[in-house]
Amino acid sequence: MTNPLVQVEKLSKTFGAGDTAVRALVEVDLVVEAGEVVGLKGPSGSGKSTLLNLIACIQEPTGGKLSIGGETVWDGQWRVADLRRLRRERIGFIFQFHNLLPFLNAIDNVALAMTLDGVDSATARQRAGALLDYLQVGKRASAMPARLSGGEAQRVAIARALVNRPKVILADEPTAALDSERARVVMDLLRQVARDQQAAILVVTHDEKIFDRFDRMVALRDGRIEGEQLRAA
Amino acid sequence: MNLALADIRHKLGRFMLTCLGLGLLMAVALSMVGIYQGVVSEALALSRSLRADLWVVESGTSGPFAEASRIPGDVREMMARLPGVAAAGAITLRTAEAQAPQGTLRVQVIGYEPGRPGGPSAIATGRGVGGTRFEIVADARSGLPLGATLLLGRHRYHVVGTTRGLVSSGGDPLIFMQLRDSQDLQFRLAPAAARRALAAAAGGGGTDTVNAIIAQLHPGADPALVAETTRRWKHLAALTDQQQSDLLTLSVVNRARVQLGMFTVVLLFVSAVIIALIIYTMTMDKLREIATLKLIGAPDRTIIGLVLQQALMLGGVAYVAAVAIVFAARDVFPRTVALGPAEVAVMAVVIALICLVGSMVSIRAALRIEPQQALGG
Ligand SMILES: Nc1ncnc2c1ncn2[C@@H]1O[C@H](COP(=O)(O)OP(=O)(O)OP(=O)(O)O)[C@@H](O)[C@H]1O
Ligand SMILES: [Mg+2]
Is residue A48 lining ligand 1, measured as CB closer than 6 Å? Predict the structure, then answer.
């Protein structure tokens, strides 16, 4: 029984036009099933972030088709009226540069994602606190982002992406600022979320130490899929 | 959790400084409103205090404030006998430079007959002018305390009472004295000149000249009707209190009033532009944060709420500062800054509207921010 939560068919993205056009993605095909954790690797500039941004509907594709949870989102034009609602309810995004709000402390940054979804702030804070505890940054819950270390900020950002229990989780180098011990904690959490919530997870990473934590690895080069490897079982 | 408040708290020092600056600007605008009101209320202070229903002046003039007017003093008795008139009083009115203990003082001298209309409606300290000569009641604006003496013309006058808020349309303090004293001051020539005038036109000029007669009518009497009767005496003109008030505000202080009114409008316009600019800067400072909010799926109303609430908080705090500044500084102004709850409330509404309108541009700009503007380092 398969349940493809992310379906990417011949998806392309070209930045600019004419002589200066950059073909960041060229006819990429990719499916991520519910419960699956897929790794995405490739050299810098190969289009990893671009692919994530397209799936998260942050950027508009220039060709192909994109479906989330079986629903067509883009096929030459947007098929979903409220993209932000789609992001809020179905997609958790862990950005390459954390993107925490500087004027909210750690726990409120996480809780905000829930209150935007209509949850009252007490409940939201409670769940946010639990998540931060799990990610071992609970004691920094009331710190402002500027006072967090890179690794702490990254884990707060991870908590924010997971707090709404999204079906699709996209992560851009979520373990880049973490030591291998904590990188493993994060990956284990993502695996657990994939299993418990039947979420589809796509993680961009350079980090060879955690390659064994993925169900499969997808490699990008110059905007094209290079090859897929199943996890060495 | 309130995003607008959290962001302000995060940059509290800067926000407070901005509010203070804006508060000073609003304080200027608010004082202009107060000064405008002050000019109008000062212009009407005397006529209101006298509670005159009818002003009888020299025919062909709109005296005694807008134009000079001279009529014989015995007109008072004729007026007092007219049907509908309850009381009538003769007054003189002139501006003078007086020597006060603290230096030269510009005052407006009112002469009246104690017991008849024309005196101050309320005494703040001391008593009213009595039967003794060379007594005066001075307004507090003159700075003269009870017992002080004032050199006016050739005589020294003693302050036996003070009033509050009685000034001329030019803002000069009013000095009340007996009609006889004021007539001496105003119409009697210096001894040498008087002798020459007497020789030229034997007994021609009496000194029983006054500037106006004010009449208080019986309740129910029609001021227009009594005025009509009065005008039958060819040498007299009569103005109802309403006509006098209109003259004072629309003619005597008109230029000052319009000038101040226009300046207030200009100031409000400048404030509006500055408020809009500040809100725009505040919003664009948060470009990355707003883009991040959109990334994590915040709906437009969250973004609009953020900008709008901050605009109102900015306007609110700045306005509170402005009100505090103006009320702390209002007594430093040489003329009345007339601000009551009504003016403060109306200005608050105006400021709120300016903030709302001023946020429109910023809201448009904020809604146009793309979520991907938050990506990248
Ligand atoms: N907004 C943009 N405008 C123009 N070109 C862009 C834009 N974003 C990305 N590109 C280009 O698209 C290509 C793919 O970029 P992308 O950010 O997806 O790479 P990446 O694989 O994430 O690299 P890295 O590992 O360094 O993060 C690059 O050549 C980049 O220069
Ligand atoms: Mg990247």
Answer: yes
